[in-house]
Design goal:
Layout: E1 2-4, E2 13-15, H1 17-23, H2 28-35, H3 39-47, H4 54-64, E3 72-73
Antiparallel strand pairs: 1-2, 2-3
């Protein structure tokens, strides 16, 4: 897994972006185009040279249809289980 120190306080941020991208058969360019960012930004994210904004992190999670916690974490990731990549649950219609 990749880790980055791009947060404002220097806290380590771990990510699964390369794994998710490879699993979906997306090139860096494909992912960049889908997100509307430069392809080099994807490389910076994957190498841990850049921490995404909250907005970008949420867009990445939405693109892969997983919870943001399946992509980014403050703790090192354990082995990847199927449950980690489960589709986000639909919103509860009773919640207001």
């Amino acid at each position: 897994m990749n880790a980055q120190r791009g947060s404002a306080d220097g806290e380590l941020v771990h990510n699964r972006l390369p794994l998710l991208r490879a699993d979906r058969g997306l090139s860096r360019t494909d992912l960049a185009e889908a997100l509307g960012i430069h392809y080099q930004t994807v490389g910076y994210l994957e190498r841990g040279e850049y921490a995404p904004s909250l907005h970008l992190a949420l867009r990445i999670a939405r693109l892969f249809d997983v919870p943001v916690e399946a992509v980014f974490s403050l703790e090192p990731f354990g082995p990847l289980g199927v449950d980690a990549l489960m589709t986000r649950p639909a919103g509860n219609p009773d919640r207001r």
